[in-house]
Amino acid sequence: MTHSAHARRFAVVAAMTAIAGIALAGCAGSSSSGSSDAPKDGFGAVEAALEKGGEITYWSWTPQAEEQAAAFEKAYPNVKVKVVNAGTGNDEYTKLQNAIKAGSGAPDVVQIEYYAFPQFTLTDSLLDLSGYGFGDFEGDYTASTWGSVTSGDAIYGLPQDSGPMALFYNKAVFDQFGIAVPTTWDEYVAAAQTLHAADPSKYITADLGDAGFTTSMIWQAGGQPFQTDGTDVTIDLQDEGSKKWADTWNTLVENQLVAPISAWSDEWFQALGNGTIATLATGAWMPGNLESGAPDGAGNWRVAPMPTYDGKPASAENGGGGQAVTKQSANPALAAGFLWWLNNSDDSISIFLESGGFPSTTSQLGSDEFLSAEPEYFGGQKINEVLAAAADSVVPGWQYLPFQVYGNSIFGDTVGQAYENHSDLNEGLTTWQDALVEYGNAQGFTVNK
Fold this sequence. Notes:
Elements: H1 5-8, H2 12-19, H3 22-26, H4 42-52, E1 54-59, H5 65-75, E2 79-84, H6 90-102, E3 109-113, H7 117-121, H8 143-148, E4 150-151, E5 154-155, E6 158-159, E7 165-170, H9 171-176, H10 185-198, E8 205-206, H11 211-220, E9 226-229, E10 232-235, H12 240-254, E11 258-259, H13 266-274, E12 279-283, H14 286-293, E13 301-304, E14 321-325, H15 332-344, H16 346-354, H17 362-365, H18 368-371, H19 383-392, H20 404-409, H21 415-421, H22 425-442, E15 446-448
Parallel strand pairs: 1-2, 1-3, 8-11, 10-15
Antiparallel strand pairs: 3-14, 4-5, 6-14, 7-12, 7-13, 9-10
Helix pairs in contact: 2-6, 4-15, 5-16, 10-12, 11-12, 15-16, 21-22
């Protein structure tokens, strides 16, 4: 996987360093319809570049990167790929932004999480690939992931993995306390109350406040709190979906029905393994993390669709990312060829899946091999059937802020305080909104609320 909650917990200072000056560095002249200097040579130019060969640099922190690069070089022996781990998440973005500002030092191909794509597309730092014929690949990906790497007619990357949300639950705990799998959030809240009343050491879930989780939950509730049109940004963290989520989750937070355990900590994995934490609403990349991090839970966990507000299927993306070609690339057609192979070839995607990645490609999501997998950890359940269905029910229309990296970094100082005080999450969201508006305007955006 390229993205999960632990990759979102970045230091505020680092995030501010990464984002500083971004808005003013290149917003003027950016456009949702793509850059005027986008290539116009079609996919033939990509094929010719792959045949001719050369050397490119690829920044990635995925565990599969080295193996994928080696397989690519075997398929295209005239090309050399230098793989560099420039850091995870924000560490990489800081280095990338510094290279962009300096005008040199950026890689040819770079890994970027979906929530961070707007930061680099708005500043005209990534190559619009539409002129290379990449529009032909739209049908190869889920709508939500394709939408995360495109803007209007411009194509700034190709999706790699995805994180449609589902409810991971401990069946043994549910059976012990006679709790049915919730299909609505009202049922979920009731299950939380029943479980904690029966055994105060157990909690329906753990949540100390995480920006990525919160935005995904607002997304699933139908919220659209962030809207961007060029440098015009509208923020409304009290729209219908935002309030719907906050009002529901308040019952859990204010009554201390969520475990006060930090996600991705050793204590968190232990609690998942021993049944202290009974559910996780999270991305489809989670199975491998449970298997490796909470081995004591083997056989007890199952996967169900996300509870919804009206009982109708609805999911959201939680995590995931893709790769892009930077405008600094000296050989953009070759870089585009590597990107195409990396995220569109069966050989590369197979490597990605074998090491636990969750695909964004429709052919893999619909394949019998993928759907029929019956992992022992999940009691032999065909969990990918549930996860693939979640990918089909992602609510459309979501947008991230063009300064979401910074926004996530101050979440703990705003909404996080509501969690800490067990107080109204709506107040925390409003405080976050005020800080985001002030920051965005200071960076040269026109921010409305």
